[in-house]
Write a structure and sequence with these properties.
Layout (H helix, E strand, L loop, with lengths): L10 H5 L3 H26 L6 H28 L8 H14 L3 H4 L2 H20 L6 H28 L5 H9 L5 H5 L18 H6 L2 H13 L5 H6 L1
Helix pairs in contact: 2-6, 2-7, 3-7, 6-7
The structure holds zinc ion (ZN) (2 copies).
The site of one zinc ion (ZN) has 6 residues, from helix 7.
Length: about 240
Amino acid sequence: MVQPDENAPTPEDLSRYGAGARVLDTAGIVGFFVLAAATIWRAWTGPPMPPVAVLATLGAGYVAADLFSGLVHWFFDTWLSVRTPLLGPMFVRPFREHHVDPLSITRHDFVEVNGSNCLATCPVLVAALAIPPSSLPAQLAALALVALCFGIFCTNQFHRWAHLPSPPRAAKILQDLGLVLGRAHHAVHHQAPYARHYCITTGWLNPVLDSIGFFRGLERVITGITGARARAEDASLT
Ligand SMILES: [Zn+2]
Ligand SMILES: [Zn+2]
C-alpha cells in the first residue's frame, strides 16, 4: 500500500491566494503599464526609427516571449515545490493547480491571472527605461524589451482564453489567426505527464522545441548537476 506523502501539497496549499499576494499583483500590473508606457515614450521621442526595424524588433520580442513562456512554464512544472518560500505561492502554485484543475484559471479574475507575470517584468522594464535612447540600436533594444515584456504580460491571459469554452469574440479571432495560443494546440500540454508544448504565449515554438527534445535535454543537464528528479512533486500528487 502506498503511504501518503506528508510533504505533498494539500488542496489548501494549491488554492491559496491571500490578500498580500493580491496587493503585490495589483502593484505589479500598475508598475507594468507605467514602466512600459514610459519606455515607449522615451524611445519614441529619440531620433527617428525606420518603421521596418521597429516592426521586426517588436516581432522578435513577441517570439522571444513565447520561448520565455516555455522556459518558465517548464521550470515551474518540473522543479521546486508549492511550499518553496516566495516562489512557491507566487509561481509554482498556479502551474501545479492548473494541472490538477485546468479550468481554475478561467475562474480567476484579471489581477490573479496577470499579476505575477507583470511583477516579473517590472525589473526588465526598469532596465529598458535605463537605456539612453541616443542611437537606433539603443532605441530598438528598449523596444525589444518592451515587446518581450508585453508578450510575457499577455501570456497568462492568452492561456486563460485557451481554456475558456467560449472565449471573447476578439480572443477567438486572434486564436483563429494563430496570433495567440490556440485551444487545440494547448490541449496537447494537458495530456499526462504534462511534458510537451510548454510555450503558452503563441505556441509557435512548440513544434521546434519538442522535435529537438529541448526540455528533456535541459532536464538531463540539471539532474546531472544537482541530482534533482524532474516532476518529483507531480509524482507525490498522483
Ligand atoms: Zn504545465
Ligand atoms: Zn493550460
